[in-house]
C-alpha cells in the first residue's frame, strides 16, 4: 500500500525560459474492526480489519528561472559604449515547437536563387524532424483534404467466442459463480448479509458463523442464487470457535457444488480469486495473491478470546463487508479458503466482515482443510468438534513462546505430562511465538492427531490431540 512518487525534473538542468512550467502536486493516501458488512457475531470468533497513505509529486520547474536569466539588454537598458544590444539566448528554433530544441541561426548570407533557398529549408526540416518529433509533417503538408476518420463510425469488432483461457480469472469466475450465493439474514438482534457457497446438490451451503449467528435462534435466512432464484435456508450447525457454519436450502433444483481444493500446500505469491457480495453487490469477483500463511486471527475480531483463533490465509484480493463466507479459490477454480476477516485501520485491530471498515489489501480466509473437516462433522452430526489440548496459554515471561497455565484434569496436555509453567517454543516444525500461534497450530489439526511439542528447556513431548463438541452460544 505504497504509492509511486513521480520523479521531479532536475532544477539544475539548463533550459530555455519557455520550458519552465508551474509545478503541480497530487495527493493520495492497521488491525481492527469487523470485516464484511454483515451482523457481527458474539465475541467468539476472531479476525482482522485494517486509511489511506499519501504521496506528493512535483514536476520540478523553477518559476524564478526566467526572471533571473532575463535579457540584460532589455528595452530601456543603457547599452555600454562600444557595444551593441544583443540577447543572451539565441532565438528559438523557428522550425520546432517552443521549448523543444534551440536552433542557432547562422550568420546572414547573401541572397541566393530561389531553388537553393528552398533546398536549404528542406534540409533544416529533416534535421529538426530527427530532433523534435512531428515537425516533418508540418513542412510536408500534414493537413489532409480527404474525409475525416471517426472511430464512432467504425464497425464493432467481432464478438468474443469460445471458453475463457484456462487458469485465468475469467475462467475461475465462470466456474465458481453459479455456486456462490448471497445470504440475507435477520433476527431479533438485527439484520445483515453475507456470502456462502454450495457444497452439495441437495442444498448444503458453507458460510461463516458470524454471517448467520443473528438468525440462529428463530431468525430468517434467504439464499439468493446467481440466476436470481431465492430460497429460505435454515442453520444446520455452526462453530463460533472456527467461524464456520452450514445452512441448507430445500426445493431448489440443479444446484452446482464447488470443487474443494486443499490449503496445506498453498504458497505465498500464488494467484487467488475471491467471490462474494460486498456491500450487497452480489457476484462480485476480485483477484490477488496469497500474501502470507498461518496468520493467527481471532474470528470475533480483536475482542474475541483465544478459543476463536484461526490459522488464516492472508490475501490482498479485495475483500469488503459482505464478502464473509464466500470462497477464496486458486486459479483452477478450487476453493482453498473461506473469506472471513479484514484488517480495519479505523479500530486498529482485527475484525470480521461485518460492519465498518473496507478493503486495504489485507484480508483473511479460513483454510479449507480446517473448514472442510468442521463442515463435514456438522452435516453428519449437527455439531462441530473442536481440537484442543486442555491447557490455558499466555505470553511467556521472557517472550519467544507460549507459557502453559492451568492444565485440565484428564486432558491431552495432562496425559502427555505437560505442566503449568512449561513454555512451548515449537509444535512439530512450526515455531510458536505467541499464545495465539499455539492455539492456531492446534486448531488446524484433527482430533487424535499426534504432535511433538518442543519446550524452552529443550524437552520434546508428544501430545495426542483431543476433540470436544462445540456448544454454540
Task: Explain this structure.
With 473 residues, the protein is an alpha+beta fold. Among the domains are: 29-54 and 166-383, Thrombin, subunit H (Beta Barrel); 385-469, PDZ domain (Pdz3 Domain, Roll), CATH 2.30.42.10. Helices cover 14% and strands 28% of the residues. The chain has eight helices and 22 strands. A six-stranded antiparallel β-barrel has the order 1-2-3-6-5-4. A six-stranded antiparallel barrel has the order 8-9-10-14-12-11. Strands 16, 17, 18, 19, 20 and 21 form a six-stranded antiparallel β-sheet that branches. The longest helix is centred in the first third of the chain and has 18 residues, at 114-131. It is globular. Residues 1-77, 84-108 and 110-141 have low confidence and may be disordered.
